[in-house]
Structure prediction request, 331 residues.
Amino acid sequence: MSTPYFSSDFKLGILGGGQLGKMLLYETRKWDVYTRVMDPSPEAPSRLACNEFIQGDLLDFDAVYQFGKGLDLLTIEIENVNLDALEKLEEEGLKVYPPTRNLRTIQNKATQKLFYTDKGIPTSPFTRFAYTSEIKDSMTNGGVQLPFVWKSASMGYDGRGVKIIRKLEDLDGLPNVECIAEELVDFKSELAVVVARNPSGQVANYPVVEMEFHPEANQVEFVICPANIDSKLAHKAQELALQVSEAYGHVGLLAVEMFLTKDDQVLVNEVAPRPHNSGHFSIEGSFTNQFEQHLRAILDLPLGYTGSKAFAIMVNLVGEPNESGGRIQTP
Ligand code: ADP
Prediction:
């Protein structure tokens, strides 16, 4: 049976042209799937590997809506995109994976946490605030207690928009935005499971990995596959990740980040609805890498085998502050 995707006029759109998008394009090139990419930067890493590049603001309604016109399928490599435009495109019949409703829930950390509470998915207790300035009142009235974790509700990633508050003054200087105050979890380790799901409902998950974060930068520094935990706990983390993917009715990859507490509870921290740094080990470590798997999932192809070829470790190398690399030649 021939599929309509390869070496055809089928068009896949990808919102965001960063390094995750670029790695997804290694797979679209391999399979000769035509791609159109949008990114605000004229020097976006994806520019050289996509078939069509459009420079545009991912948060602008018109830019995203126009981008989606004429596509057969739309996916993302970053979740901060204009969702009203995606919703309109979806209403007009365009397939958008991950589904816009999931991006809506995930884009805001408060609604994401409420989703877990509503679905009975274990997560750390939290309080939602319309403004950071309201937290102090809550503390004096016996509400939120120190220490806690302040998280900006939107636009935070890689540790930006997250701060551990141990004393009142730690709140000084934080942006006065919608946020959550979350109980500080005394965790043994941070775990993640990347789950793939296609529209037909086939599901495949990668092994449970352990993530080690840089203590100051709050960025992941090492990802170890498989996690160094006993098989019962690994099974518990895997089952929880599958439950989360099912609750979302997700399509594409969903990276589920979790805390393993000192008393062996597994709590969901947050999810990323796309290829994720906790899945990079799969590029060399797994029989199917996460980018091929994302493509398989959104195209509703059979999912690939997620077993490991070997033990793997991912090391995140980040340049010095203010360091800039060589520039690509733009045509
Ligand atoms: P981001 O969206 O920036 O990745 P996260 O919510 O994943 O933000 O938080 C970044 C890191 O901060 C986590 O990986 C973890 O190390 C720490 N952290 C987040 N929430 C908590 C918490 N409730 N208790 C303890 N540490 C936390």
